[in-house]
Amino acid sequence: MADGSPFSAPFPSPANRRGAVRHDWTRDDVQDLLDLPFPELLYRAQTLHRAYFDPTEVQISTLLSIKTGGCPEDCAYCPQSSRHEESVKAERLMAVDRVITEAKRAKDAGAARFCMGAAWRSPKDHDLETVCEMIEGVKGLGLETCVTLGMLDTKQAHRLRDAGLDYYNHNIDTSPEYYGEIISTRTWQDRLDTLENVRDAGINVCCGGIVGMGEGEGDRASMIATLASMPKHPESVPINLLVRVAGTPLGEADEVDPIDFVRVIATARITMPESHVRLAAGRENMNDETQTLCFLAGANSIFYGERLLTTPNPAATRDRKLLDRLGMRTTMVES
Ligand code: SAM
Ligand code: DTB
Ligand code: SF4
User: Disordered: where is this region (predicted)?
Assistant: First the structure.
């Protein structure tokens, strides 16, 4: 909890937190939470949120696509896969100085973390060296660093750790049961292996999933149970609402009931109370009231800035206005 918050006093001190954090969540346990009456679910989520965080504070991360398009993988949701009809145009890996310029801009706009994404199955060794230069440069600005580069082996994870990387993003995306409907070019076990390599290298883990890919409610429970039963919970848990991009197999997926989406956020908050739960992709198509419910359900991180990787995100001015209306503030960066 940040020092100096006018709200510090009423929150329970760490000594007063109720119970140990659980790592044995089953799909049924999570389903029971998802099925709670909405007021009860939100009450539980808010109670835990307050025990661990200042509920008026939101962490902000800015994304940059450092290598766009031309990806050989077949993730059904992703506009960067070269296997889909209208995938985005493939570009080369960005130059280091351009990345640093973008990171400075993000810092000036108030971001605490700079996340760099590459449309790779896994990084090639010479590209990884360039990414390490980017990490060193971005860290030099006083920003936290995060990258998402696809699958990593142990050696690559250690190389990133040595470059000073703070977070690695690698999502499980959905439940183990539904996974095969979404991706065929890498296995569920491949995902878990990368996550383990990142964890073992001592890098913080950013791992979440996507809601709205045609999954059943049971899949949502199973996805959250998978995350919440990890021996150490991911430090950041991005919950993405599918951005439906025309030309991808999920371009015409059914809309998600906003209340159901808020339920997923609340369930992530309850099961992983120490983690930052990010209201990630999908805010561009969400009204202020739904986003507000997400914050009330325990979301305490957002992607900030006009673009995600290839798709639009709300303008920073709209986000500032909403946070001001709510009397909320962003986590400040030490510099
Ligand atoms: N290529 C790397 C990989 O897949 O691991 C890194 C980049 S990839 C774009 C990172 C994550 O973005 C995906 O795992 C997925 O969860 C999320 N994502 C991609 N397209 C999305 C979409 N249309 N809507 C919501 N989330 C999306
Ligand atoms: C995450 O969970 N969501 C971000 C980030 N991690 C890399 C990506 C969202 C991508 C949305 C589609 C796009 O802009 O291409
Ligand atoms: Fe490639 Fe990542 Fe998109 Fe999958 S999600 S197609 S691996 S960029």
Answer: 1-22
Active site residue 206: yes
Check if 243 has its Cβ closer than 6 Å to any atom of ligand 2: yes
Kindly report the pTM of this predicted structure.
0.94
Ligand 3 atom index nearest CA of 148: 2
**Is 294 annotated among the ligand-binding residues?**
no
d(CA 326, CA 114): 25
Per-residue pLDDT of the chain (335 residues; tens, 9 = 90+): 444 444 443 444 454 555 689 999 999 999 999 999 999 999 999 999 999 999 999 999 999 999 999 999 999 999 999 999 777 889 999 999 999 999 999 999 989 999 999 999 999 999 999 999 999 999 999 999 999 999 999 999 999 999 999 999 999 999 999 999 999 999 999 999 999 999 999 999 999 999 999 999 899 999 999 999 999 999 999 999 999 999 999 999 999 999 999 999 999 999 999 999 999 999 999 999 999 999 999 999 999 999 999 999 999 999 999 999 999 999 865 54
